[in-house]
User: Fold these one by one.
Assistant:
Number 1:
Amino acid sequence: MKIKILHNNDSSAYDKLSATYGSVFNSADWLKMYADQLTLMGIYNDNENLIGSFFYYRSTKFGLPYIVNPPFAPHNGLFFVNPSQNKSNQNTFEKNVMELVSDFFKSISAVFLVTALPVGFKDTQPFLWKKFAVQPKYTYRVDLLQPENVLLENLTSEKRKSLNKAQKDGLIIKASDDIKVVSELVMKTFARQNKKVNIHLLNKILFEFAKPENSISFTAYENNKPIAASFCIHDKTTAYYIIGGYDSENKHHGAGVSTMWNCMLKAQSIGLKTFDFEGSMLPDVEKYFREFGGTMVPYFAITKAPALVEFVLKLVKGTLT
C-alpha cells in the first residue's frame, strides 16, 4: 500500500468510497471550504486502487507552522476499505494501514502536529511506537433508534424542567428560516466568551455549505425576538452538533436546551441513527452535553512537537490541543 495526494482524476472513486465509508466531513462540499490549506490524501492498494483517505490542515499558531484538524471538523477524516474476511486478517490489515498513516504524519514537516482519529479507530500503537503522544478524548452520542419518550426520560431532570419551562413561558421553537439570525447569536456568544473564531470559515459553513439536505438548525423566540439557536450538519446516519449561541441580554433557561432537543428530534424524524455532540474537554461544556443522555464514546488525538515548543505552548495556552 501507499499514501499519496489524491488528485482530481481520482475524485469519482473518492466520492463513491466516502459516500459509503466516510462521514459528512469527507464530502466534497465540506472539504472545498478549506481551499489550499487542506490536503486530501489517498490510500492506495498494490494495484493502485483507491481504498481510503484522510486529510490534514496547515496553518500557523503563535507564528509557528502547524498541522491540525480543520476548524469545525472533529477528526482527520480517516476511512478505508478492509478487504479481509476473518478477524485476524482484518486486524493485520488495519495495523498495516495505521502504520502507513503514522509513517506519513512522521514524514511531513511541521513545528507541531495535532490530529485526531474518527470514533471507532482504536489501534494507536503505530503512533506510540513512533513517539507520538496519544491522548484519549471524548464525545457524547445519543442513539436515535430509541423511542422519543425514552430519549426524553434519558435527559436529566434539570433538562426536562428547562424544556417544560420554555413551553410554559410561551417560547416558540422553530426551524431556522434565516441563517443570519443563527450567525448573529453565535457571534454574540463568541464575543461574550472573548473567543476567536474563523469568521470567514464559519460564514462558509452557514451560508454556503448548509442546505436543507445536510443541516438542521432551530431557533428559540421570545416575544418574536430570537434568543438562542443550535446548528448541526449530518450525513446519512449521524447528526453532528457544530455550533450554537444565545443572546445574554434576553436569555431564557430553556431556550438553548429546547433548540438542541428539537435538533435531536428532527434528526430522528429524518431517519438518522446517531446524534453526536462532538464532545468537549471543558468541564462545563462536557456537563451540558452529558445531561442530554448520550453515551460517552472515546476517540484519540495524536500530537507531536519538540519539547521546547510543547513547553511554550502549555505555558501560553495551557494545553497543546
Number 2:
Amino acid sequence: MGLFKAYDMRGVYGEELTDEIAYKFGRAFVTFLKCKNISVGYDMRESSPAIEKELIRGLTDQGADVVRIGLSTTPMLYFAVAKFGYDAGINVTASHNPGKYNGFKLVRKDAVPISGDTGIYEMRDLVEAGKFKEARKGKVAERTDVLDAYVGNALNYLDAGKLKKFKIIADTGNGMAGLVIPELLSKMPCEFEHMFPELDGTFPNHEANPLKTETLRWLRAEVKNKKADIGVAFDGDADRIGFVDEKGSVVPPDLFTALIAVELLKENKGAKILHDLRSSRAVAETIKENGGVAIETRVGHSFIKEHMRREKAVFAGEVSGHYYLKDNFYIESPYIVMLLLLKLMTETNKKLSELIKPLKKYYNTGELNFEVKDKEKAIRKVKETFADAKKVYELDGLSIVYEDWWMNLRPSNTEPLLRLNLESTSKEKMEEMKEKVINALNSH
C-alpha cells in the first residue's frame, strides 16, 4: 500500500485511504501498540470527519478508549498526548498535501513518533491481513480544553508583557494554524493581521507550504505594504513555520535555527543543539560562537526527536521549517520559536533583517531535485567524481566536504528523486560545483 510512508501515512481519499482502511487501521494500531487510551484529533479537510469516525470505530472495536480533541494542529495532538499522559495519539491529516489527500500522523506515549522503522510497516501488514482478535468495546470521551492548554503552554516561555508591540502578519493558508494563531496573538501586546484565516481543506488561495517561496508572495507583499515587523506562515497541519522579515524577504529556515540557538544559549551555556545536515555552515558556527555544542543530524522528525532524546539536546531545527524543543516534550514548537524570535528582537532592539544579515555568509543552491532511475548508482557516480574530498560520509545520503564548499545528495523516501543541497564561500564556486554534480548525474 502506497499509503504507508517512512514518517507517516498519506494517500488520496477514496483510493489509497478509504473509510474501510481507516477502520482496519484503528484495529491494527491497537493490536500493534496494545494501547489502552488514545487521543485523536483531525484537520480541516472535507474527508477528515468521516475518516476520524471510522478510525475511532476501529480503535474502540479493538478495545481502546478514545479521547476526541476535535479540530487540531498536529503539534497540538502531540502536546495532548504528552501533557495529559495518553498511551498514544493519532492526528487525521495530510499536512500540506492537496485537499484530495488525507492520512495519519502517529505517536506513542510521551509523543514519541511512530515511523516506518518503529511500527508503520508492521501495522500495514496487519491491515492487509485484516484479521483481528475480538475485544471489549472501548469508550469514547471528548476533551475541550486542549487549545487553551496549548496556547497557555506557549505563553509560559516568556513574559509577553515585556515584548515590544510588534506588527505581525500571519498567513495560515486556510490551514489548522488558523485555529491557534488568533488565540495566541490576542493575548500579546501586538498589532495582528490574519491572512486566509478560514479553515478550508481545499486550500482555495495557495498551497499551505512555507518551504516553497512562491506560496509566500502574498505574505511578502502584505508585510511590505503594511510596514509590518515580521510575517509568519504555516503549513497545513501547522507543524512547520516560515518567516518573512520587514523588507518582505524570506528568512532561510536553517538560519532561523541559528537565531533561536542564540536566544536559547543565553540561559543554556554548553547546551547541545541539533541542525539537519542540509543546514548552512553558518548554523554550526553560530551555535559554537555562542557557547553551544552543534550536532549534525539526519533529516526527518522521527530521527531528529530520537537523536535529541539521546543527546538531551535543548533544541533542533530543520531546513524544512520544523523546530523542536526539549522543554516542550521534544515536539514541533512553531509558536514558541516565534515568541523567542520576538523576545530576541525586543532584547537586541534589532529588526529581523538586521539579525539575519550577519548569518548570510555563504552561497547555496537551495534544495534541487533530480529524477533518477537508480538512486544508489547515481550516488556512487557522484562519490567517485569527488574522491579527493576532505571528508566523505553517509549519515543521510552522501555528504562531501571541501575547504571552500560542501554538498549533500539525499534520496527521497517517497519519490524517485535525489535531493541536492550545496553551499560554498563564493557564488562562482557554488555555480561551478553545482554544474559538476549535475554533469555527474547526467552521465549516469
Number 3:
Amino acid sequence: MNQEHYALTLQLAHGVGPKRARAIMETYPDGEELFKDRPEHAPPNWPSPTEWKALQQNASKLLERHDASSIRSLSVFHPEYPEALRQIPDAPVILFIKGTYLPLDARSLAIVGTRDPTPMGMENTRQLVEGLSSYQCTIVSGLARGIDAQAHHSALHMGLPTWAVLAHGLHTVHPRENQALAERILGDGGAWFSEWPLGTPPTPGAYPRRNRIIAGLTEGTVVIEAAIKSGAGITAHLAHQYDRGVYALPGRIQDVRSQGCLDLLQREIARLILHPQHIAEDLGWAQSQKVDPTHNWPDAHQRIWNALEAGPMRLTALTEETHIGTEKCLHALAEMMWVGDIRATHGWYARDGPMA
C-alpha cells in the first residue's frame, strides 16, 4: 500500500494519534511489515491482523471517495505536504486538501479571534488584511463566525489567497451560514484543509486539534479579540510552542473579548502590533506590488462599492449615486451581501465592517 493508504489506516486505528502514527511509519516504512512483530510504538489495544485488514479496506474506500471529490490526500512524508506543518511534532499523519494549493506557497499568516466580535474588532481585521495585501501573503483561519470569517472575507476583497482549516471532513461546511464564503474561497484560488476524512462530522474535541494545523501551517498567528480561555488563545499558545510569530492587538481592558489578547501580551507570548508593517518587519517580508481587489467585479458591484466608500447609504441614495435602476441595484446588493462584500442593517448598506 502507498504512504497515503498506510497513513490513513493508522489514523483509523483506535488509540493511534498523529505522533504515534508518524513514529510507526518512520520505524516501519513498509506497512506490510507491521504484523511480523509488534510495532515498538503500538498502543495496548493494537489491532489484530484481521482488524488491520478491515481498516485497510476502509481506508482504501475513503481514499477513492476523496479522489472522486477532487480532494488531495497527502501523507506527512509526501514531498508536497506543507513543509511548515511537517515541522511541528504533532503534524497530521495525513492531510486532505480541496482547492488550489501549491507546495511553494510562501508567506502565510493566521488571523483568529472571537466568534462574537465588536465592530472595532471587525474593522481592525479588515484594516490589517488590507495593510498586508502589499506583502502578498496567504491568510489562514478557521472559517468560524466573527473574526475568522472577516479575515477570509477581507483576504478575498484584497485579492489574497486564503485557506480555511476545518474541524471535520471536506464534504461539508460548518457553520452553514459560511457556505457561500467557503465556496468563494475555492472559486478565488484558495483551499480547504482538514485532517479528517470525508463523512467525519464536527465534534467539540476536533476544534482544538484543528487549531494546531492553523498554527503549524503559518509563519505567524495574529489574535484579534479573544477571551482568555478560547480557541484563538489555544492557537496562539500552540504557535508559540512551535516557535512561530505570535501577535496580538490590544483592546479595551474592560471587555472580555480583549482580555485574551492582553493576557498574551502581559505574559510575553504575543508581541504587540499596531500596524501590519510590524508583522512584516518581524517576519522579514518585503513588499510586493499591491493588488487591486475589485478588478474582476461586475460594473454594478464596482459602482456600489465605490459609492459606499463615504459610508453607509440607503437604497434611494445608492441608486441616485450609482445611476443604477432600483431592481438592478437590489439584485447587485443581494449578490454582494450573499458573498459578504457588504452588509445591511435597518435599511442601511455599508462595506463589510462596522455600521454607522
